[in-house]
Amino acid sequence: MLTLDKVYHAAFVLRDVIRKTDLIHAPNINPESEIYLKTENLQVTGSFKVRGAYYKISQLSEEEKAKGVIACSAGNHAQGVALAATKNGIQSLICIPDGAPISKVEATKKYGADVLLVNGVYDDAYNKAREIQEQEGSTFIHPFDDEDVIAGQGSIGLELLDQLPDLDAVIVPIGGGGLIGGVAFAIKSLNPNCKVYGVQASGAPSMYNSIARHERETLSNVSTIADGIAVKQPGQLTYELCEKYVDEIVTVTDDEVSTAILALIEQQKLIAEGAGAVAVAAALFNKVDVKGKKVVCLVSGGNIDVTILSRVITRGLLKAGRSADITVELMDKPGQLRDVSAIIAELGGNVVSVHHDRSGENTHIDACYLHLVMETKDHAHIAQIRKALTDHGYKIISQSCTYLPEQTE
Q: Which terminal residue of the chain has fewer beta carbons within 10 Å of its beta carbon, N or C?
């Protein structure tokens, strides 16, 4: 049974292993509230997961340690288990979904674990790990549905109350529920008046649906850029903890997550992965009541693949109206590009790409299409440029904010 004593013991065991991550004031995330960021993206291994993994492994018997450990993970739990096992001289095998970022896979290997890539998502990796564990007798280190793991994650709650004793609310990412289970239990046990809000990706709302329907739900599929919380079914222990201690669970879209990642980069100079940015997205887009309150957003991890990061930034720019793609129909004669560019430049837009197309089969023989990609300030700025072009007699065929296809990091 999870107890406050166990959470305090976990914090004691972890004191020389993990960092007590900083709490950073972030005034521009939501100007109507007092937002702070708990920077677990700067934790050892780049994620909070090392807390629960290390505490769990520290509590194993010598017999269990001798048989080795096995785990499944989208990447962050994998690194935590690998580090903890290596530090304790234990052999580890990690089953990872084959869609996980290469950076996470390679980091797991560098921490000393053997890696088995499994076709599918987290739940497929889980089933494979359980199969191997039954065959070989190794100890399975569950990423979230385990009291020791949850207690380790709960050490974050103790740190928050120490760093900001008068906080009004904390916003926490939810995948399987181990993080919010531990944080909510610790905070509510010591400060029942503090609100605890959970956030899931709208493409993987397993805990959101389960709490709403008062029974655990298994999703048929998940689709989100927040791979670290792409879980089809929440844990039994974590579901019960959320039912008892979490005040509300909300969801955010991939576009909102991308905007949050961009905001963290620009405003705070912090890199967050998709799962790590969902709490910030919830505050940024007022998904929970934060107005006038002292609120902590838990930035749970920063292990994002750099190739995905560039695409997420592009998506965030589009969502925020910082980039626009418009197509203008005009007569094919000298000076047209100069005149269109002059109108855009006069209003402060910056053309970064131009494509001149004469091949449209439905256009007039003397007409052409001009495709422009511009850097802009916001959506109002885009509307201003559109109006100026139409006022000068140009016909806008389309304005495209083509978002990236849904994918897993």
A: N
